[in-house]
Amino acid sequence: MKQLEIKHIQKLLKESIGDKTYIHCLGVMDTAIKLASKYNYDTDKAALTGLIHDCGKLKNNEEILKTAQKTGIIQDDIMANNINLLHAPLGAFIAENTYGIKDEEILQAVRYHTTGRTNMTLLDKIIYLSDYIEPNRCFSGVEEIRELAYKDIDKALLIAIEDTIMYVIENKLLLHNDTVNARNHLMINLVKNRR
Ligand SMILES: [Fe+2]
Ligand SMILES: [Fe+2]
Prior knowledge:
- By secondary structure, the chain is mainly α.
- It has a single domain, classed as Hypothetical protein af1432 (Orthogonal Bundle), CATH 1.10.3210.
- Helices cover 70% and strands 0% of the residues.
- It contains 10 helices and no strands.
- The radius of gyration is 16 Å and the shape is globular.
- The N and C termini lie far apart (48 Å).
- 35% of the residues are buried.
- One fe (ii) ion (FE2) is lined by residues 24, 28, 53-54, 131.
């Protein structure tokens, strides 16, 4: 199928995720554009990915679980037992099969926007961080990460991932291997670059 027009994607997105998540997506889109222009990445691609990154966040958990089971996107036990993680691979599925997005880089950034992964692409990093620091986010320390994001994307990303790991542990949630891999890979590279 051909990729839907952006107006059509916006309409479907708003209907399926609801107003609150849609507003969050607009915030992620704005931040993704800013980070993309700072780090010389395609701003149109970053904007589209930011807009749709949560397209798998259907209005209730039952619907997410039902659709995830139907589409066969649950690939491991950690995903199967942590509903918070499911909307990301589900989103990649919806982006491809409902919106007709073919760009593998965009689909991967949607797929890994919650867990991160080893060797993240620049688009993965932009979306993960934009999701964390978009203007509607408000938690102690967010301003520091916002500032750092425009100075050193890898350092900002490392803090965001480590905060997420700590949140997951404190709340007794399952920690996905991809998040551990994302953190270790970033640390190895940061140490290498310091030498
Ligand atoms: Fe998300
Ligand atoms: Fe999000």
